[in-house]
Design brief:
Length: 345
């Protein structure tokens, strides 16, 4: 591709006007020469956001382990022997103390995760109280509680919830190879309930589970064709947790114990950025394994959010001090709450 200007103009204009992407169009983005893909992603990113500002979300597992579901990647499923201890729902005081510390460290959003198929009514009451108290600290609030029943999203909205995280995780065609205890359609149903309640949607997925590029493109396609598109799109690199079925499958596959090629991960970020121009694309699980250079490529490809804090839910994340050092090296700044820039800046 010699004319470097026209494709960018096309992609920005089309992204602004188009309603639906096709599988072939998303696969064509993946197949671009790496430099062309990065240029297009950068152009879309700069038209929609400050290219040097990163949004920081901190995660806390408020209910760990013992989950009824069989998600093949997850350390918290009761069906996998990962050595993780099942815990009770945390006390509100502990959650608030952790949220205060996250705010002091610079996070603007606090995301509370529970290892549930979905919340029981009694548990939802406790979670809505956590949302109220965390919100009162001046943090944006996010929860990820699994599948919702009618009326539950409205209760969360009333408590002041800003975002609900519920991932499609992988394309519909591959879903049954990863999870059998609920369906891809169930996930879409909860996402619709969240949207209807007026809560911002945080929805993404996982790559590196042994899926093909076609499946990765299918995931991005499904996310980009949600209408409206999710405000936040976490892209997770599989963390291979010992004792989970997927860690075994990936390690025993023809690729030996190799992870997904890092350039394929960067391509996924770039394709997400191009197809979802106004969404925050979050570099999520797997940052420790990616290392500084690949993370820098991800920021260049349009990632503009991270999970910030020494732990994800049950696995490790880069230390806060390591992230501060990386941000300093790259001249990155942190985005204030509601820091999205208007197109055209
Ligand atoms: N139980 C709720 C649910 O499944 O929706 C919320 C918590 S669940 C742990 C949230 C997300 O974390 C999953 O949808 C998946 O995308 C991600 N995740 C979990 N384990 C992971 C792993 N080992 N590697 C990468 N991402 C993972
Ligand atoms: C998301 O997409 N990734 C986060 C958050 N949403 C809840 C969770 C990552 C979990 C990684 C494995 C663990 O720490 O248990
Ligand atoms: Fe349970 Fe969520 Fe883990 Fe699936 S991803 S096993 S639903 S905690």
């Amino acid at each position: 591709m010699n004319d470097m200007t026209q494709p960018v103009v096309d992609s920005v204009a089309q992204a602004a006007t188009r309603k639906r992407w096709s599988q072939a169009e998303v696969e064509a983005l993946y197949a671009l020469p790496f430099n062309d893909l990065m240029f297009r992603a950068q152009s879309v990113h700069r038209a929609n956001f400050d290219p040097n500002a990163i949004q920081l979300s901190t995660l806390l597992s408020i209910k760990t382990g013992g989950c009824s579901e069989d998600c093949g990647y997850c350390s918290q499923s009761a069906r996998h022997d990962t050595g993780l201890e099942r815990e009770k729902l945390l006390d509100i005081a502990e959650v608030v103390a952790t949220a205060k510390a996250a705010k002091a460290a610079g996070a603007t959003r606090f995301c509370m995760g529970a290892a549930w198929r979905g919340p029981k009514e009694k548990d939802l009451g406790a979670v809505t109280e956590m949302v109220r108290e965390v919100k009162a600290l001046g943090l944006e609030t996010c929860v990820t509680l699994g599948m919702l029943k009618p009326g539950q999203a409205a209760q969360l909205k009333d408590a002041g919830l800003d975002y609900y995280n519920h991932n499609l995780d992988t394309a519909a065609e591959f879903y049954g190879q990863v999870i059998t205890t609920h369906t891809h359609a169930d996930r879409l149903d909860t996402l619709a309930q969240v949207r209807d309640a007026g809560i911002h949607v945080c929805c993404g997925g996982i790559v590196g589970m042994g899926e093909s590029r076609r499946v990765r493109a299918g995931l991005i396609l499904e996310l980009a064709n949600l209408d409206p598109q999710p405000e936040s799109v976490p892209i997770n690199m599989l963390v291979k947790v010992a004792g989970t079925p997927l860690a075994q499958v990936v390690e025993q596959s023809g690729e030996g114990d190799k992870s997904l090629d890092p350039f394929e991960f960067v391509r996924t970020i770039a394709v997400a950025r191009i197809t979802m121009p106004a969404s925050h694309v979050r570099l999520s699980a797997g940052r420790q394994e990616l290392g500084e250079s690949v993370q820098a490529l991800c920021f260049l490809a349009g990632a503009n959010s991270i999970f910030y804090g020494d732990k994800l839910l049950t696995t490790g994340n880069p230390d806060v001090s390591a992230d501060e050092a990386l941000f300093a090296k790259l001249g990155l700044t942190t985005e204030p709450v509601q820091g999205r820039r208007c197109a055209g800046h």
